[in-house]
Amino acid sequence: MEDSNNMKKTTVLMVGAGPSALAASVYTTREHIETVLVEKGVIGGLAAITDKIDNYPGFAEGIAGLELADQLQKQAERFGAKIELGEVKSIEKIGEDILVKTTDGDYSAEAVLLATGSDYKKLSVPGEKEFYGRGVHYCATCDGAFYKDKKIIVVGGGNSAAQESLFLTRFSNDITVLVRSEWRASDVLVEEVENHDAITVEMGWQVSEIVGEDNKVARVVATHLETDKTKEFAADGVFVFVGLKPNTDFIKNSKIELDDYGFIKTDSNLQTTIPGVFASGDVRSGATMQIASAVGEGATAALKLRMYLENKHRAK
Predict the structure, then answer these.
(1) DSSP-derived 3-state class of residue 29
(2) Tens of pLDDT along 285-314?
(3) pTM for this structure?
(4) I need a surface site. Which of 14, 59, 180, 316 has the fewest CB within 10 A?
């Protein structure tokens, strides 16, 4: 609904329409809580652009990411969730309500859920975008099983790269880790990686291109930073672990507290430092970066939102 100043009003506004927000909206709308989701990109988030999701409970043969996202959207909309396309510019608490400014107009909401997710940091090299989901991946837990007995390249030198390399040894005994400068992972992980028979570590290599053949990844071209030598590494799959970037730029000037990496801090009720503003899924500090966890947190956040609204109305 809109007031005389064209301010759109809703009980709950959710920023983002990925798995966490969609799951949360199923819970709120089933209880007849008016809910609007504002999404600036793809409905379904990273899940929607993942070729196949093989570790989501309930799908024995896996499910295409786009199909899962579509089903989540249809379920949320069946109960009355409204999804609007737009980009949120700012969030501010005004009195008892929360003002959310977007490119599609301003909203006044009684409560807000931030579920904008995060995005994988990219190498930004030719071939990376073109072969995403067809040889280029950012989650070994999600996609490692597709590369049983295949040749795998891992790019990165932090804890994630080390941990995911070790995880990939469950499927392949031919893994090469390309570390750009030096290890940033813990000494324990580095020692385990470097002593694993299935893993070869190549230090000082910066990826310059990912090359494909027959519509799939075939090799990685890298340049050695000290010698300027170029080398090609054969690969069936490339797993990039150079960090995650939370989608929190729009709240960096707000009173919502972020951790050192830009993720949203919450309390045990998933509430942020602004009363009435909650966060769930991959954007939340401490999240596990798994779709199943994001969906679960969305359900939990919805229940906490309901409790917040009940207490708020009871106090009036």
Answers:
(1) helix
(2) 999 888 999 999 999 999 999 999 999 888
(3) 0.75
(4) 316
